[in-house]
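Internal QA ticket QA-208
Title: Verify multi-chain structure generation after dependency bump
Assignee: T.L.

Test input:
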Amino acid sequence: MATFFEAIIPHTLGSIAIGLSETLFAEVDRVERLISRFDPTSEVSRVNRIASEKPLKIDIELHHLLLICQEYWRKTEGAFDPASFHSDCSGDFAQVELDTSKSTVFFKSPDLRLDFGAVGKGYALQCCRKILESLGAKNLLLHGGTSSILAVGGGLDGNGWRVGVRNPNDPKRPAFECEIRLHNQSLSTSGVIHADENESDLFDPGTGRPLSGSSACSVIANDPVQAEILSTAFLVMGRQRAEDYLLQNPDENLRVAWLEGARDGSPLSWIQCEATCA
Amino acid sequence: MSVNSGRRSFLKVAVGSSAIAVAGNASQSQRLQVAVVGTGGRGSDLIRKLTTFRDVEIVGVCDNYPPHLEHGIEYSGGAKGYENFSQMLEDAKPQVVVIATPLHLHEEMAVEAIDFGAHLYCEKILAFTVEAAKRIVDAANKKGTILQVGLQKRSNPIYEQAVSMVQTGMLGEITAIKCQWHRNHSWRRPLPVEKRHPDWERLDRHLNWRLYRETSQGLMAELGSHQMDVCNRILGTPPKRVLATGGTDFWRDGREVCDNVFCVYEYDQQNSEGKPYTVRVTYSSLQNNAYEGASELVMGTQGTLFLTSKKGLFYREETGEEVVIDASSGGDTGAVMVTSGKTLGLKNDPWAHRGKPLEIDSESDETRDALYSFIRKVQNEDRKTICDGAVGLENTATVLMANQAIDTGGGIDYPI
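Actual output:
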């Protein structure tokens, strides 16, 4: 995931907070070792090397994650696509064959590779949440690289974990574009481009080209994987298609904020929100 | 004398294991029936690697802690779960048993599995005492059991390469080895209940078994075993002696095992002229500083190996080389050195002496490759596994002699 994770844990006993953070970071490392395509010893690297030779029996957790990805690939009509071609960076998950009964994966093209960049942080947060539930942890905030956040409980004052959304196009703007309070929710923010970049690090799976424009999108969801996938997929789709998606896939738990790169006035608007947050 | 530094070119060597390409080739009809006992973190890992082999069927998973058993069942793709080991053997009739339980349980389960007729993959270290390890090895030898102990670096191609480099003399004579497993980590798992809960103590002893002397042999067994195995392999012999000290100085949370240990092992070696000398190996494990993590530094008269599980680096020593000087010819070729008006600068970089290393990379998954190798040995009825009973016994003794040295104490008190 090539980023840092940070946990904010209100505590009365330091040793409990230390134990909890160690457990969470160990879990993030475990997920990294499973799905990183940059770690040659990971299960995903093994898949990327040889899954085009024949159907490959893989770890059950990775298989499950691939099924989730397949579902979102379909729902987003390819705007989210963790399978991409080496040669031109375009994506085509249709080239990935999954056999659930045998827990196998097969690439129909040797040029294909899996890249969980647009889902990995959210998946790590989801795995952490499972552990937190099993341990009965009731109040903490965990984030990966500040762009993917998991809030457990209601924060320091019980009124929600306070998170500010900043305009990525203009880091000099001191004020938050808005402040969001999270209660047992996840927030994921993706931006096409940051002030210090010339070209987006996000690719349109349809064309294989970097995204252009200056939008950013924040998605609040109960499920960190859903928030992570949709925040990037919506940028790929553009605002109009994102709005269409929300009409076609109604989900009252989703909140979606859209930032367009304006430098004057507030560029943030909500596509879908609670009555109280407008 | 002149030093030839131009030869120190940059090389990159990738080592891989052929296991990766052929894994999962065997036909469905010969699927090996495997049962796993102990489905906590390590056991779950083993189960998950086993499920990636086509010719393995997990016929049972066993754990007496229900949340761990649930994980085991889930990761195995729905194998039958058992709370009782004997019942699993009787009911699931596995051909292979994998033991990943807390250390104090290894002997009882290993001997039972061997008597039952199963082949055995046992996590390190082989047993809680040297005597128990001997009993396991004796039972396995008597029964013809194929036994492999889970010392991870045995299946890592970087270490395979390192051992070959030492054996072929690339490092010259080995003079010392420095091993460490340092991390900044309490080693304590959080529990699902609060401390005032009546079950807290029982659960703590169960889940944090590594921290208590009744169930654990501490850092040397859990971490040091892998690295001391590397030393024994590289030096081709077990150590003859150890000095060691350790204590619980930082994590004063009720644990009974040391949170830091320091050992000096002595090994008998012979130099190139057949004369005996002693190699000293230092081993340390810390739980409050992670600099240089888990690594081994093998020092020889001709070079140094820095080893980690994902990368190895080989540095040649800067040593003098013979040059031919032709005194009869004039000019540069006959001079022993050339001087000019400029004083040559000396690099201030503290690492300048190291030069550019030869890199050894690996794409191998140690745990998966260890299991893969074991499964093949079972299929081929070959008892010479990559880490057999004799290695497991030697390793147990190597590790436990340090713990005994720590308990016995020694040293000289200040002032003399």
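Spot checks passed. Chain B has a mean pLDDT of 90.
Status: verified.
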